[in-house]
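User: Hello! My lab partner asked me to get a predicted holo structure for this protein. The small molecule is pyridoxal-5'-phosphate, SMILES included with the sequence. Please write out the structure tokens.
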Amino acid sequence: MTDVARGDDRTGGTAPGQRGEQTRAVHLPPQPRVEQESLGLAVWRTSTFGFDTSQEYADVLGGRTPGYVYTRDDNPTVHAFAEAVAALEHPAGEDVQAQAFGSGMAAITATLLAFTGAGTHVVAPAGCYGGTWSLLAHTLSRFGVETTFVDGTDLAAYAAAVERPTAVVWAETLANPTMAVADLPRLAALAHDAGAIFAVDSTFASPAVCQPLRHGVDLVIHSATKYLGGHSDATGGVVIGRGELIAAVRHLRVETGGILGPDEAFLLRRGLATLPLRMARHCASALVLAETITGHPAVARVDYPGLPDHPGHDLADQLFLRGDGRTRYGGVIWVVPHGGREAGMRFAELLRLPVTGASLGGTHTLVGHAASTTHRQLDDDALAAGGIDPAGVRLSVGLEDVEDLSADLLGALDELAG
Ligand SMILES: *Cc1c(COP(=O)(O)O)cnc(C)c1O
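Assistant: Hello! Below are the structure tokens for the protein in complex with pyridoxal-5'-phosphate.
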């Protein structure tokens, strides 16, 4: 669209040079149309796009010509972010597409709404992300979508659950907080035999640890708020999969209005440039820390897939990417000190570098005592049923020097033991 040229073949109206102050302030000279590549992503901070003719508008709206109409539908900056994640999740470049959302939960909601309806059935892990659990158990249930919650590491339980006609099988690549590893290829086979779509929340892994589409998964979902953005400064979500499935997800996104904002898309896409570097560091430091504190007298147990006795260790070696000659096992550690709930809270308080708070995947090491915060609604029996020790502390290992983190952790544990 060229603002000044519009209607110039027509006489009448005020001539451009004689228009009022506020008219000229609104109808500024058009911004440059740049055909060159810019290294920084252009931020299309606009809600709507203009056309030279109504026919052009109609053609873009009708999908006959490429272009943008309205940002709730599509926005070039947001599109660039989604495409970048799709490229990282599936470098082979088959028909893999993505849609970006204002949060991880918006992405999860659109995915579940796209493939369920009244009378349909979902199978999901009992220990899945709290927001997903609540959406399935409390909200979608009101619309006639029934969910069977199973132990996420129990293939037999999944197999029994899909004997009932099932629309969606849900899993998490790495599960919070104990870092259980999902058997993606077996779950994919099981879901597909049952005619279900297999969707996986891969937030804890990121495409620098695991690329679930290579293991038979149909749809990969990320809270981009975590590792993809990586700097704790933007909230977003993304869904990646085959074009035909993603078209259904986009339809739901447009209807429910959950698109990512262009400024967040800029920040999240900028984060992607360093994702493999950051993830390699998160994983390498987490492994060192898990090994360092295992066996400390104040520590009852450490759950981390990089430790040989973790139940998901071999699976992680099969499914996860390698860097510097070793598997990347993820950046989150679950630490259970001796001494129950009080000891867990005290351990978190004794740490000096880690910030106490929610979320994960940022530059700063974050610590959270689960039983008093993220899982506070669960009494000790409910925690036990979910395999969550009341003393447990989740550590999202940041990018600080591992020597400093290690000294801090050991110091806190020494004090706890003493
Ligand atoms: C944070 C998180 C979500 C939700 O993402 P938001 O961006 O907070 O909406 C979903 N799944 C997992 C595993 C998460 O860690």
